[in-house]
Design goal:
It is a single chain. The protein has helices at about 5-25, 30-40, 45-60, 65-70, 75-95, 105-135, 140-165, 175-200, 210, 215-225, 225-230, 235-260, 265-280, and strands spanning about 5, 300, 310. With about 350 residues, it is mainly alpha-helical. The chain has one domain: MFS general substrate transporter like domains (Growth Hormone, Chain: A, Up-down Bundle). It has a 3-stranded antiparallel beta sheet. A hairpin with a 5-residue loop joins strand 2 and strand 3. Helix 4 packs across helix 5 (about 75-95) and helix 6 (about 105-135) packs antiparallel against helix 7. The chain is globular. It starts with a strand and ends in a 29-residue tail after the last strand.
């Protein structure tokens, strides 16, 4: 049996990690809510600062999530993170829509703490699997995921201006803040469930719960797969496509932010900007499509180990134009001494 790393499987994880970066930046949606809190609920600047500070503290308090990740892996952390973020944004939405009719700075701080904790936990549960799945290309994967998390604020602002801001009124009370809160919460939950179906730790690095249930022979077999990762880099063409999309997103969002800050634009222009931002985000899924022209990959049959596949056609010779080289499939050799 000839084993190699399933390239498409880990590229799907890469795309999910990029989308998770967008959810991490959702914590900055509070800056969109701030004007509404001042105008409608008469919150002072000290109240808004307190609410934001409480949220930031819980965003940085990811130690419990990290412990849970080490013990049970991303499949346990992801639904918890998504549920917390959805709950936090839903509470904001229910308050903005009047269902919760006792708004106060204390309540808003509690909502913010819940959603910030969920968004921070999404980061923990996706960035580490990416680094482990791409040991030879960590720089590119982290660049794409973390740059997206930084640009996510501008993406969310584009969504808000295009779909939830009032077309003509400059009064903040006319904007659909409740709908925006529900939208962001649902988006985070959807991405969390998507990542739950896709993101896995590599076979050579099982979580503590899984490791305790493996026999010594199974652990040795899994540790041996590290050498497959260390001699099979990711497709340069697919990674290059992802980096190109990141740069395109960076240029587009920077340009539109500066332009709309100094030029009065129509509602139609704002909608167009939001649609372009959405399409650019959706385009990241292209890197995981099963087309050889996007980057060389070898068809594999699934095995009992995550992202490790058995070669289906050993003599297949797909297109390698563009600098992609076929991985050298071979039985997993004995692992290096430090991993025995």
């Amino acid at each position: 049996m000839v084993l190699i790393v399933d390239e498409l499987a880990r590229m799907r994880m890469f795309a999910a990690g990029v989308y998770a970066g967008l959810t991490v930046s959702s914590i900055y949606a509070f800056s969109i809510f701030a004007a509404h809190l001042r105008d409608k609920y008469k919150m002072s600047q000290s109240d808004i600062t307190m609410i934001s500070t409480v949220g930031n503290c819980f965003s940085y308090f990811n130690f419990p999530t990290g412990m849970l990740f080490d013990y049970a892996g991303p499949m346990v952390v992801l639904p918890i993170a998504g549920a917390c973020a959805l709950l936090g944004f839903s509470l904001f939405g229910l308050t903005f829509s009047g269902v919760i009719n006792t708004p106060s700075a204390t309540y808003f701080a509690l909502y913010n703490a819940i959603l910030y904790f969920g968004c921070g936990s999404m980061d923990v549960s996706t960035i580490m699997p990416l680094m482990l799945q791409f040991p030879l290309d960590r720089g590119y994967t982290v660049l794409a995921a973390k740059t997206t998390s930084g640009l996510g604020t501008a993406v969310l602002m584009a969504y808000f201006n295009g779909w939830f801001r009032h077309p003509t009124s400059e009064n903040t009370s006319d904007n659909n803040y409740a709908g925006f809160a529900y939208f962001v919460g649902a988006q985070i939950m959807f991405i969390a469930l998507l990542a739950l179906c896709i993101v896995r730790l590599p076979a050579y690095f099982p979580c503590a719960w899984r490791r305790r249930r493996l026999t010594e022979a199974e652990q040795e077999e899994r540790r041996a797969t590290l050498s497959l990762y260390m001699r099979q880099p990711a497709s340069p063409r697919r990674l290059g496509t992802a980096v190109g999309l990141v740069l395109t997103l960076l240029v587009f969002l920077t340009t539109q932010s500066i332009a709309t800050a100094y030029i009065k634009v129509t509602h139609g222009v704002r909608v167009a900007i939001s649609v372009i931002a959405l399409l650019l985000m959706v385009a990241f899924s292209v890197v995981a499509l099963p087309f050889q022209v996007l980057g060389r990959y070898t068809p594999v049959r699934a095995t009992s180990m995550n992202t490790i596949g058995e070669v289906v056609e050993e003599n297949a010779c797909p297109d390698t134009a563009g600098g992609d080289e076929a991985p050298a499939p071979a039985p997993a050799p004995t692992p290096p001494p430090q991993y025995r």
